[in-house]
Each structure stands twice: as C-alpha cells, then as structure tokens.
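hey
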C-alpha cells in the first residue's frame, strides 16, 4: 500500500500538493489522525498522518514547521491535510512539507477521515469481498447479543469480550486517550498508562471513539496485531462502544449532579450551618461518611475527572471543577504526587495551549473542614504554573511559593505601592542585591563593583523613598516580598 494508491482513488478526491515519486512509493504501515501541534511521540515509521489542521493559525510559519518536522522525525510516509477547517491547505504547510520532504495531500471537505482510513486498511488487507472464508463484519448473532447487552446496561469489559469472542484469541484493548485501560480481552497484556498513551500503541490498528464535548474522555480501540481482525469488524465494535458511551454519558451526568450539589454547598457565600447537610451531600455523591477528605480544584473539570479515574480504589466525586476525595485512614496518600505524572498524560490529550492546572487542599478530618480544604486548593491552584501544573497546599513552604498564590493583580498593586518610588533603575537593583547578600555592605559593594559608601548612600535613599528601615526584619520582609511580587 502506497500513497499513490490513494491518489488513484476516484471516490476520495485527494489532491497531491507536493511529493516526489520516490517518496510517494514508500510503503504505508498504518494511519494516525491527530490535531496535536507536536504529535511525534504518537507516531510510528511509515504511517500516514491525517490532520484537520485545527492547531494551525493563519500565517503561523513556526507552527507549520514544528508540526511537519515532527512528522519527518517520526518517519511518517505522508501528511493528508483536511480542507474543511480553513477552506484550504495553507501555503505555509506546503512550504514546510517541501523543506522536510514529507509528501502533502489535500483531503476535500466532503471526504471524511474515516473514508480515507478504511481505504487504507481495505487496500492493505485486500479486497474483502474476494475472501469468503474470513469474517469481515460482525455476525448477525453477535450484533443481536451486543444490542441486548447494551440495553441491559452491560459494562465495557463484557461488551468487548463478546464483541471479540468470534475472532478467536485476539488481543484488543479499550483505552482512554490518556492511556487508562477501560477493558481488554483475556489475551491482551496489561499496558501501563504512560506506555499506553505513547510508544506502546505504535503499530497495530487504533480507532478513536470521540467524546461529544471534551477530548479528555475520548477512547481508543486498539489491536496490537493489525492483521488479527478486519477493519470493518473493528469499526462495528467501535460503533458499539460509541452507543455505550452515549448511555454512559447520561448516567455519568446523573451521578455528577449530586457532586455538583456538594460543590455548590462548599462554594456558597455563607457557610452551611446545618452540620448534617454536608454529610448528606457527601453520602449522596457516593462518598463514605466521616472522612477524612481532601478537596481538589482544577481549571477543567473534565480533565480532573479523567485524572482521578487513574487512582484505583480512591472514592471521589467531581462537580464542576471541584473534586472531593475520600482518603482511607489506613492509607497515607500523597495525592499531588500521584496526580503529577497522570496530569501530564491528561494534558497531552487536549489542546497544547490549554491552561490545565490543579491545586490540592490539605486533608480534612471531617465534613466541617471541607470549606477550609477548598480554600487551600484554590490558593494552590493559583500558585500552580506551567512548570508546576499540580501543586498541593503543603508545597507552599517558601515565601515565593506562597506569594505565587496571591492573584497577579494584587501582587502588582502591592509591588507598585511599595517599590514604585524607586523606579526600575539602580536603586531597585541595589536593594535586590543588598537583600540577596543578607544586607552585607561589603558583599553588596563587591557584587555591584561600587564603593561601600555609594552602597550606604543608595540604601539610605531606598529607605527614605519607601518609608522602610532596613535594620528591621519586618521592613526587610516587606521589601523582599514586593520584589518577589514584581
């Protein structure tokens, strides 16, 4: 199977925008659809890459080059770019593909990526209609059984087992986009989440089952041996799980309604005075009574729900962008530590530029301490940043970390009010070096290449302009905090 085979298809309507004959004749190993700006860790050699170009911004040469260079480094055979999002394939992308020698093919708006994927695998496995000895679609009795199981509320493990039973000893995984295993057939080996979200899925065949509103709840139907099951069968199995997901979404929304009510009680402007109200809300949300509990706050509730699903055996309830966890008294859990590697997997599922951060409050011994844990979680969330996207309140063990949780607009006002009279020149620099050297006149003079008398003069000016006395500890802390806020 080569790119030229696809270009010769009359039904797909593909257009070659750039590609040399030698490159177009390379063997195709599979297909991956992605709209990540840098998808290299999800790609394998020889794959065709389908992209709707959602990541691209008009005129952005850097993004185009970054995306295509990732394909080239991964050994992709070609890029098939959809025209629907922008109405065309941008010239910047054509130039990047020419520079990195990656063939580029335009996919018209009326051609679905699914049609392209099926065309590839139908070609790879030959014309299915000419191979009558093999099952190329789910048998009628299997489809009927799966329909009955869906109606009766069967879980994903039972559905996957029955859907794949007629294929023999086939290994098949049902995974979330972040690599969490939802179900697997008995012959399928367990895959740790970090591998399932990356290199372990290279090769084989993966079909993505999208969620309606969030990329964090997408699923992947993955067969490590691409020749173990016909693509038509896998598409039908994927459709079964798409139906299952619709029912699951309705049930999940009902379950989260109780969690939202719990969150509303915690967020209420006036504290709940009825001691039993929070206990009832906790029980209604499915959490054991009595505690201890911990509150988490995140910038995205769907991402938070997927991250918490990785924590086996930990009861939790997610309402909006707040979660309450029940922590067994016999298990000392480092919740922020457990969630940091998971959060990186969840972040990779969404838009690269998305602001995904998480803050964890301290352990609350009972329901009456939940509001305090929520306040701590929100403060830790504000202190989280790109370098430390998951932060627990226990991590706020330095003044700089503490100040990071103060809203930026408040920090700005404090810094301007305290240091504004110094300007941005030598007085502020002298103050910063003076404090960094523990108020040593000699070391400050050496660091700034000044005479000690000059340092004395400048610090006196700082004290006069700021109204602080640098012989006093509290005044030193005032100025140090203002510098950190600035």
């Amino acid at each position: 199977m080569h790119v030229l085979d696809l270009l010769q298809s009359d039904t797909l309507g593909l257009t070659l925008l750039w590609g040399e004959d030698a490159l177009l004749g390379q063997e195709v190993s599979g297909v991956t659809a992605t709209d990540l700006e840098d998808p290299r860790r999800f790609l394998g050699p020889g794959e065709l890459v389908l992209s709707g170009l959602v990541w691209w911004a008009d005129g952005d040469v850097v993004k185009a080059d970054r995306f295509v260079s990732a394909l080239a480094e991964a050994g992709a055979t070609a890029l098939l770019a959809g025209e629907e999002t922008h109405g065309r394939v941008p010239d910047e992308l054509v130039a990047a593909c020419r520079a990195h020698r990656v063939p580029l093919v335009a996919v018209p708006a009326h051609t679905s990526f699914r049609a392209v994927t099926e065309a590839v695998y139908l070609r790879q496995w030959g014309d299915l209609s000419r191979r009558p000895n093999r099952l190329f679609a789910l048998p009628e009795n299997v489809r009927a059984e799966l329909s009955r199981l869906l109606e009766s509320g069967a879980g994903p493990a039972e559905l996957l087992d029955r859907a794949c039973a007629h294929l023999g000893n086939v290994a098949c995984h049902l995974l979330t986009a972040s690599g969490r295993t939802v179900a697997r057939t008995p012959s399928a080996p367990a895959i740790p989440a970090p591998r399932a979200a990356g290199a372990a899925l290279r090769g084989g065949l993966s079909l993505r089952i999208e969620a309606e509103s969030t990329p964090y709840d997408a699923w992947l139907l993955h067969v490590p041996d691409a020749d173990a099951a016909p693509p038509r069968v896998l598409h039908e199995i994927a459709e079964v799980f798409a139906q299952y997901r619709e029912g699951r979404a309705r049930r999940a929304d009902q379950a989260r309604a109780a969690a939202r009510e719990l969150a509303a009680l915690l967020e209420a402007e006036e504290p709940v005075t009825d001691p039993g109200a929070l206990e009832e809300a906790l029980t209604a949300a499915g959490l054991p009574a009595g505690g201890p509990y911990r509150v988490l706050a995140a910038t995205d509730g769907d991402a938070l729900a997927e991250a918490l699903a990785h924590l086996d055996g930990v009861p939790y309830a997610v309402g909006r962008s707040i979660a309450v966890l029940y922590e067994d008294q016999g298990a000392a859990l480092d919740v922020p530590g457990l969630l940091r590697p998971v959060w990186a997997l969840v972040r990779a599922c969404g838009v690269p530029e998305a602001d995904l951060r998480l803050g964890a409050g301290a352990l609350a011994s009972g329901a009456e301490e939940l509001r305090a844990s929520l306040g701590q979680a929100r403060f830790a969330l504000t202190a989280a940043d790109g370098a430390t996207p998951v932060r627990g309140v226990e991590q706020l063990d330095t003044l700089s970390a503490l100040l990071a949780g103060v809203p930026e607009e408040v920090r700005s006002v404090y810094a301007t009010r305290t240091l504004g009279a110094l300007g941005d020149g030598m007085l502020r620099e002298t103050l910063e070096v003076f404090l960094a050297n523990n108020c040593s006149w000699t070391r400050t003079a050496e660091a700034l290449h000044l005479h000690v008398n000059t340092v004395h003069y400048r610090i006196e000016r700082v004290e006069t302009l700021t109204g602080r006395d640098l012989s006093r500890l509290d005044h030193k802390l005032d100025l140090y905090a203002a510098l950190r806020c600035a």
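The longest helix spans residues 231-267. Residues 126-136 have pLDDT under 50 and may be disordered.
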